[in-house]
Structures are given as C-alpha cells and as structure tokens.
Specification:
The protein has one domain. It is built from five helices and no strands.
Length: about 180
C-alpha cells in the first residue's frame, strides 16, 4: 500500500516535471528559431500569443516557446506516465520516467533540427512550402524554414512518445530480468 501511495505521488510529480521540461524545451527551441528568423515572431507569433510590444525580443520569443509547448507535456504525460506504472517500485518508476522524458525531448529536438536543416538546404524563393506568409515578411525563406522546424518539432514530440513507450518496456524487462537473478 505504501508503494502505491508513493507511486501516486510520483504520478502527479511527473506531470509537473514533463510540463516544465516541455516549457524549457519551447523556450530554448524558440531562441534558436528567433536566431534564424526574428520575423517569424515579429510578423506572426508575438501577435498570436499576445506578447506585449515591450517584449518583442528574445525574451518574448522565449515566452512564446513556453506558451506553445508546456501543454505538449500534458499530452506526453497522459500517454507515458500511466504506461510507466508497469515499472516495479517507485524509485524505478521515477528514474525511468524522467529519463524517458529526456529521450522524448531529444527526439523532438532532433526532428526539429533535421527539419530546420532541410529547410535551409531545400527552400529558395521559387520553392517555398505552402505557408500563409504575412504581408511585410522580408525574408520569406527563413520564415518558412522556422515554420517548418516548429511544425516538425510537434511531430517529433509524437515520435518521442513512441520512443518513450519502447524505452519503458525495455527498462521494465531489464529490471525484472535483473530482479530474477538476485
């Protein structure tokens, strides 16, 4: 019973952790995005996320990143955290799930960076994706590159969920096999 109560407490804590990790990811992600295309923010995201004009800079981009991604932590958590309950013991549950969150984050980051590189290599003024580019955008190529990166980062989060589920299953099997040897 004590183990179940600890796991429940950790269950709640894990939602807090994954939402914070998703927010930090978004903050850092949008620092990179802002470096590539400040116009993506000044012409689209600052208005979309109601960022005050005083913050139309890197800080505002970071706030956009947090607002745009923290909720992805809920999506990931709703799937991953209950699956993690298969882990024997609360310590294994906590450890494996935190590492799983790291793997999910890295997966999303890698897919976003691949999309960024793809856009930088493939896009030119005659070959742009079908994005709704606001009037006044001067560097349409970089605007689209960042838009591509943002879109694929969410897809990366979904792929990360698959990576996370696989990690939990592998870790569970490894821990149970080790426990049988002792």
């Amino acid at each position: 019973m004590k183990n179940i109560l600890k796991k429940f407490s950790i269950f709640v804590l894990l939602f807090f952790i994954i939402c914070c990790m998703a927010g930090v990811y978004g903050f850092l992600h949008d620092q990179l995005s802002y470096t590539v295309s400040p116009e993506y923010f000044t012409q689209l995201k600052f208005e979309q996320f109601n960022i005050p004009e005083l913050m139309h800079n890197r800080i505002g981009a970071g706030v956009v990143g947090i607002k745009a991604t923290w909720w992805m932590g809920l999506v990931i958590g709703i799937v991953i955290i209950p699956i993690g309950l298969i882990m024997p013991g609360w310590k294994n549950y906590l450890r494996v799930l935190v590492w799983t969150f790291v793997y999910i984050t890295v997966t999303a980051l890698l897919i976003g960076i691949i999309a960024l590189i793809y856009g930088l290599i493939k896009y030119n003024i005659n070959n742009l994706p079908d994005f709704n580019i606001p009037n006044g955008v001067e560097d349409k190529i970089r605007f689209c590159v960042v838009g591509n990166m943002h879109n694929f980062s969410y897809i990366g989060g979904l792929f990360g969920i698959i990576v996370g589920i696989i990690n939990i299953i592998i870790q569970n099997l490894r821990i149970r096999k080790k426990d049988k040897r002792i």
